[in-house]
Design a protein that fits this description.
Elements: H1 3-30, H2 32-52, E1 57-65, H3 77-83, H4 89-97, H5 100-110, E2 114-120, E3 126-132, H6 133-142, E4 152-158, E5 165-171, E6 176-183, E7 186-194, E8 199-202, E9 206-211, E10 220-225, H7 228-236, E11 239-243, E12 249-256, H8 259-317, H9 324-364, H10 383-402, H11 410-462, H12 467-502, E13 507-511, H13 524-552, H14 556-563, E14 567-572, H15 576-584, H16 588-591, H17 600-617, E15 623-628, H18 635-648, E16 652-657, H19 664-669, H20 678-683, E17 692-693, H21 699-702, E18 706-710, H22 719-723, H23 726-736, E19 742-746, H24 755-763, E20 765-771, H25 777-789, E21 793-802, H26 810-813, E22 820-825, E23 831-839
Parallel strand pairs: 14-21, 15-19, 15-20, 16-18, 16-19, 20-21
Antiparallel strand pairs: 1-12, 1-13, 2-3, 2-10, 4-9, 5-6, 5-10, 6-7, 8-9, 11-12, 17-18, 22-23
């Protein structure tokens, strides 16, 4: 490729790129009003959102989990095997924070299950509050109110509620306060209490103490008590817990409308979390402690008996010690028996724990293995704690749904299925844990068998010693075994005691809950960015789909270039006021725009159509069929106004309504479908055509010339059969030789029914009506091909409802538009012509 070719290629690419950019800019420019309006609406909405939305604050407390010290018991190989099924400590603690055991304590501590709804004054005015008791108290402290005019709740004690309870407290004016429960907007009395300050309202399920010095007669206080399930759900949605990266830090964040309340709830959650966690860990340690303590008492009793037996035998036999060989045998045997007893203790502990897990598994379908045993775990795997959290959330959601729906409701059934699925997964983990415990138990049993065999062998060797030495060695062995086991159990109990005191305090507050000063929402920058993206998305989508649709629509230049059909005229889009008048008016003069002096541009466009039509026909043909490709193309309106324009030029014009399924032209003229018409002619034998003179009875029309119509008559479902009949051909041929100068036939859309094609075979020529931004390119292409296949000459096109000012073809086709006489109203209300000068359609 030489230099000149390369240069031409680069210039071609540059032109294509510039053309694409120009097309893109033009696409946006054509829709500039939408872009501007969308910008204004979206950013006003964003401003309103920022103004209306109440700020939300977030307080965060940071906890640090201390590294747990390893003790000899925790590195026991059997313990290691069992802890393979336990969860990561930090993940477990995160799950614990949002459990019911913690959140319920926070709810009760801060009275978050009480909400103040509104206060109705005795004069009928209402003060809407809609705040939790904690927020309400803060609201009273911060607001410029006379506190005596609002009630203060000094204490609450809510034992058990099955559901959300809506209550209203009323001063009846008779020295008592009446309490009602609101059920289905009805007040159900549940108690009456004497007036005092402070005063208590107490029922079987709750007790509240009020202080309200100015509780006036007729005043009503509406408030709500929440059961723990619903209160848990309300608070849970405002709490987030997360591990800080790969560290041992846990962040607990609380959101609320009041910064000091967010801080208070965060601190309370931490306190209740540490309290609950300590209690759970202490419970597990105490279980092991109690087991060891019970074994210790038993061994201590056996040791004392063994010591007494040895002492008594030595005193009675006079033998106080044995030889060195026997002493070694006894020492080794006592070690074996001590190990066997220790093995039996571990075996008993694991068997008892496994049985407890099995019992819980039979009742619930799973058991909580989160705190099985302390020890190192894999930080990357912690599904069990997550599953427990999901199970807890689903159970709370189920409780909420049951307040509104029955157990057979699809949503409740769906949650039941999810709960069953999670329990199945928990069960799978439990089965692995039970298997691990069984492996430990089997290993301990196997070890016990081996120890028993060794003990039997060494007992046999001892039995070969002299009788008195044998008995002494047995008593000595018993005392040594129990002494070693006793010391072993003492060491383990001390480990449990140290663990209970030290290891339980392995959570420390690294950073206390802060008092937030800047709200986390709504954020101005985020809202601004969201508005920009939303606006941009709307604009791009609108432009894209608009361009996509426009590419499917027919272009004016394509009609002449691709189909080789001239455009007779472009009818401008009717103004909104004109459309409204045409739709509402019952006067024919108002419906025919060709009579209007207020819209000379539109009138002139019909005159252009008349002139080009007459020139194209050249007096050879006078019967013309008008059709379109879609409904609502303005075909009927065009036929009526064209007929009026032809009549105004001293032509005898006949309009025929051949759309027997819609009868649009007859309806426009105002002729009833009960009047005989085209349907009657083709289905019956009428010798005289039922033609109606449109000008008769219309003063404005009578001045225009001869204009008549052959109405459609009644609607016909078999219109195609009628048009294919011999009568239809006879009628068309008769009209061709009639005294009418022009016969304009309004037919249905050619792409919808076959009527136009049937009529076209006899008529031989047609004018296609195309509506700007409505007619599809493929539809027009198919319609013209169908007509031409039937030898119908489509010799012209009328473009209807075109925004000529905005089209790029107005200089080629916009005859009669934008160049007219200026009119004004005279004192008598009539339209008269101003001085003889021409102006543009816009004001100058």
């Amino acid at each position: 490729m030489d230099y000149s070719e390369n240069k031409d290629l680069l210039e071609s690419k540059s032109k294509n790129t510039q053309s694409s950019i120009d097309a893109l800019l033009l696409a946006f420019y054509k829709r500039k009003l939408f872009i501007i309006y969308t910008f204004v609406i979206i950013f006003i909405a964003g401003f309103v959102y920022l103004y209306v939305t109440k700020p939300t604050y977030e307080s965060t407390v940071l906890l640090k989990k201390q590294e747990s010290t390893k003790d000899p018991y925790s590195v026991d190989p059997y313990k290691q095997l069992a802890t393979l099924q336990s969860q990561d400590d930090i993940e477990t603690d995160i799950a614990l924070v949002k459990t019911r055991s913690v959140i319920d304590k926070v709810v009760k501590k801060l009275d978050l299950n009480v909400s103040i709804d509104k206060l109705e004054k005795s004069n009928g005015s209402t003060i809407k509050i809609n705040k939790s008791l904690l927020e309400y108290n803060s609201w009273l402290r911060d607001g410029q109110y006379i506190s005596d005019n609002f009630p203060q709740i000094l204490s609450t004690n809510i034992d058990s509620l099955d559901d959300i309870t809506n209550l209203v407290l009323v001063n009846n004016g008779e020295g008592r306060y009446d309490l009602y429960k609101i059920i289905n907007k009805k007040n159900i009395p549940i108690g009456s209490f004497p007036q005092s300050n402070p005063f208590d309202i107490s029922t079987r399920n709750f007790k509240l103490t009020f202080y309200w010095p100015n509780f006036q007669s007729g005043e009503k206080l509406f408030f709500t008590l929440y059961d723990l399930g619903n209160a848990f759900s309300r608070l849970d949605n405002n709490i987030s817990v997360a591990q800080q990266g790969a560290t041992n830090l846990i962040a607990i964040s609380v959101k609320d409308r009041y910064p000091e309340i967010a801080q208070l709830i965060a601190n309370t959650i931490v306190n209740k979390f540490m309290e609950t966690r300590t209690a759970q860990q202490r419970q597990n340690i105490q279980w092991s402690y109690a087991f060891i303590d019970s074994q210790l008492k038993d061994v201590k009793k056996k040791l004392r008996t063994a010591e007494d037996n040895l002492s008594n035998y030595q005193a009675a036999s006079g033998i106080t010690k044995i030889d060195a060989n026997a002493d070694n045998l006894i020492s080794f045997l006592s070690n074996l028996e001590s190990e066997k007893i220790n093995n039996d203790l571990q075996l008993s502990e694991y068997e008892k724990k496994r049985q407890e897990m099995l019992n819980e598994y039979k009742v619930k379908g799973y058991f909580d293995q989160t705190y099985l045993t302390p020890g190192p775990t894999d930080p990357a795997s912690s599904p069990f704690a997550s599953l427990l959290t999901s199970l807890s959330n689903l159970e709370v959601k189920r409780i909420e749904l049951l307040q509104k729906e029955t157990e057979n409701h699809p949503d409740v059934v769906n949650i039941d299925n999810q709960i069953a699925q999670i329990k199945k997964q928990l069960s799978a983990y439990n089965q692995n844990t039970l298997t691990a415990y069984q492996i430990i138990i089997n290993t301990l049993k196997e070890k016990r068998t081996k120890l028993e065999n060794l003990i039997s062998q060494y007992k046999y060797k001892i039995q070969g010693m002299p009788g008195k030495e044998t008995e002494l060695s047995g008593l000595t062995r018993d005392k040594d075994v129990y002494a070693k086991v006793f010391n072993l159990l003492l060491d383990k109990r001390e480990e449990m005691r140290i663990k209970e005191v030290s290891q339980l305090q392995d959570i420390a507050i690294a950073d206390p809950a802060n008092l937030p000063t800047v709200p986390i929402s709504p954020k101005k920058l985020v809202t601004l960015v969201a508005c920009i993206f939303l606006w941009g998305g709307f604009v791009i989508a609108f432009v894209f789909f608009g361009e996509f649709r426009e590419r499917r629509l027919v272009k004016l230049n394509e009609i002449e270039d691709n189909f080789q059909i001239p455009i007779f005229s472009i009818i401008p889009e009717f103004p909104k006021k004109l459309k409204k008048r045409i739709k509402k008016s019952k006067q024919l003069e108002d419906k025919l725009v060709s009579l209007s002096q207020e819209h000379p541009g539109i009138v002139e466009s019909y005159n252009v159509l008349r002139s080009k039509l007459i020139f194209s026909l050249k007096g050879e043909k006078k019967i013309i069929m008008f059709t379109s490709c879609e409904e609502n193309s303005g075909k009927t309106t065009t036929v009526a106004n064209l007929g009026l324009s032809l009549a105004a030029s001293d032509k005898k014009v006949l309009l025929i309504d051949a759309d027997l399924k819609r009868c649009g032209l007859s309806d426009l003229i105002g002729i009833s479908r009960d009047v005989p018409g085209l349907t009657t002619i083709l289905s019956e034998d009428l010798r005289k055509l039922p033609i109606v003179d449109i000008t008769n009875g219309h003063s404005k029309l009578s001045k225009t010339g001869s204009l008549s119509i052959l109405p459609s008559g009644d609607i016909s479902e078999k219109s195609s059969d009628l048009f294919q009949s011999a009568k239809a051909a006879v009628l068309i041929n008769a009209l061709k030789s009639s005294f009418y100068d022009y016969v304009l036939i309004d037919t249905p859309p050619v792409t919808r029914v076959i009527d136009a094609l049937i009529l076209g075979r006899t008529i031989g020529n047609a004018v296609m009506i195309v509506r700007d931004k409505h007619t599809l390119r493929d539809s027009l292409d198919w319609g013209i091909k169908e007509l031409r296949s039937e030898n119908v000459n489509v010799f012209g096109v009328v473009v209807n409802a075109c925004e000529i000012e905005k089209t790029t073809y107005k200089h080629r086709y916009g005859y009669g538009y934008g160049y007219k006489y200026a009119y004004k109203s005279n004192n008598k209300g009539k339209i008269v012509k101003e001085k003889s000068r021409f102006i543009n359609s816009k004001k100058i």
